[in-house]
Amino acid sequence: AQSVTQPDIHITVSEGASLELRCNYSYGATPYLFWYVQSPGQGLQLLLKYFSGDTLVQGIKGFEAEFKRSQSSFNLRKPSVHWSDAAEYFCAVGATSNTGKLIFGQGTTLQVKP
Amino acid sequence: DAGVTQSPTHLIKTRGQQVTLRCSPKSGHDTVSWYQQALGQGPQFIFQYYEEEERQRGNFPDRFSGHQFPNYSSELNVNALLLGDSALYLCASSLGLGSTYEQYFGPGTRLTVT
Question: A84: Cβ–Cβ under 8 A, 6 or more apart, which residues?
Answer without folding.
Answer: none
